[in-house]
Every structure is written in C-alpha cells, then in structure tokens.
Design a protein that fits this description.
Immunoglobulin-like; 8-stranded mixed beta sheet; 3-stranded antiparallel beta sheet; 16% helix
Length: 264
C-alpha cells in the first residue's frame, strides 16, 4: 500500500487551475479548467469529473497562429459520475464546461463532486460571485476574497497534493431575485455612464471589472457562449441547430437552450 502511494505521486498533474463562474453571461454556470501534465506522464490516461448537470464541454484549442477554437468534447459516464478524458499526447490542456441553466428567479444551488483520476500537486480554485446575487455562500471557507468597485467578488484558494480518486465537494448557494447575469448588470453600468455623458453630466468612475489572470484563453473563454457557437458553426455548420422556441443557436448534444431554457 505504501509503495502504491509513492508511485501514484510520481504521475499526475503539476499545476492546474479551476474557475467556477456562475451566471456571468447566461443563467447557468461556466467552469474553466486548465492543466499541465507531469513531463513523464505524456501518453497516460487522465480524467476528471464534470458537474452532474453539465450540458456541454468544449476543448479550447490554440493553433500556431494563436487562433482560438472551441471543439465539442465527449462526456463519459462511469462509476456513477460524468467524466472527461484529457488528450493523452498533450502536455497542456484547457476546457470550458457549461451547465444547464437555472430556471426562474429562484434560489441557486450548485454542487460539484470534483474527482481527479490522478495525483494533483497544485490546483488554484477560483469561485466568482455573480454581481446580482444575494446571500452568497460557498464551500471554500479558507479562500481569500478580492473585490472590485462594482462589487464583483472572487474567492481563491490554493490546493496542494490532491489524492487521486478522492471526491471534493464544491458547492455554491445564493439568491438571484431578478435573474440578471453579471454581464447584463455590467452592460447597464456602462450604458448609464454613456447616458450621463450624453446629458453633459459628470461621468461616474467606471473601473473595469477584474477578470482572472489566466492566460489569454480565459479572457476569451468567459465571453458569451454565442461566440463559441459562431466559431464552431464556421468550422462545421452541421454541429448547430436552432431552438424551436426562440431560434437561439444550440450545439449538437445540448439538452437545454442556453437562452430560454427550453428542453430540446
């Protein structure tokens, strides 16, 4: 048993980053993950769980010309959980996950049993608080808090030496009585500022909200899922359909419309 523990620590992931962003650009949860394999671990199978209500997963690809692509990725069910298997020959990888949308202005509950099939040396976990949320609670009591002038808060904690196949429950609970996304409220702030300028009134000081410092991929990945839909549509027009209720573009494999929540 002791020998197994030693060997399991020799293979896995050097560094990873997991960002959980509820109701930023739509009324669901976006999860961003990036990882770096051990140099001696290329070719070995590595997997992680995704939230039980995950609607779609995309592998984020950067080509030699620094163009960004979102490739729909398979979700695999085994041992009572939903998993994604990382590309075996890739040293670095990045994923974007989208859950099904919350319905209505009710209390929000998000639960994620995070499991890695390998040893993780370092993982930076970030949780962003939606701008319009109330009574916000989360599982990471030891996280540090960072907030900008608009009240957009992020909670960060560094996790080390995460054992393989051991679940870590990450949960978020809050109310969103108006069902507004953070992006909607930020856009309204900018619109109000422009209106003040048009009327000749002193403009409010608007400080740009803080994005996570996580490679150029993050700045693009948190943009609305519609951008991802357009990129995939250009690559393969057969991969999208339209919602019969609101005509929103829907990826093949999605169970709910990201705009109106209609089951498709």
């Amino acid at each position: 048993m002791y020998l197994f523990l030693i060997i399991s620590h020799l293979f896995g992931m050097d560094n990873g980053r997991l960002s959980i962003i509820p109701e930023y650009d739509y009324n669901g949860v976006t999860i961003l993950f990036s990882g770096q394999r051990d140099s001696i671990d290329i070719g070995r199978l590595q997997s992680m769980t995704v939230p039980a209500n995950t609607d779609s997963v995309f592998l984020i690809i950067t080509d030699d010309d620094k163009n960004i692509y979102f490739e729909q990725y398979d979700i695999i069910s085994r041992n009572g959980y939903d998993w994604i298997d990382f590309p075996s020959e890739t040293g670095r990888y990045s994923f974007m996950m989208k859950t099904g949308p919350f319905i209505g202005p009710e209390s929000r509950n998000f639960n994620y049993d995070l499991i890695f099939s390998f040893f993780v040396k370092n993982l930076l976990l970030e949780i962003q608080q939606p701008l319009g949320s109330q009574n916000f609670l989360h599982s990471e009591s030891e996280a540090t808090v960072d907030s900008d002038q608009h009240g957009l808060r992020s909670y960060t904690i560094e996790l080390s030496n995460i054992p393989l196949n051991k679940p870590r429950n990450i949960w978020i609970r809050y109310d969103n009585p108006d069902a507004f996304t953070s992006l909607t409220l930020l856009s309204k702030m900018m619109s109000d500022t422009n209106e003040d300028e048009r009327k000749g009134q002193p403009a409010k000081n608007i400080i740009r909200y803080k994005l996570y410092v996580w490679e150029p991929l993050l700045a693009i990945a948190v943009v609305t899922i519609i951008i991802a839909a357009v990129l995939i549509l250009l690559k393969d027009q057969k991969k999208t359909n339209a919602c019969p209720k609101c005509t929103q573009l829907i990826f093949r494999g999605q169970k709910f419309c990201p705009n109106c929540g209609n089951k498709v």
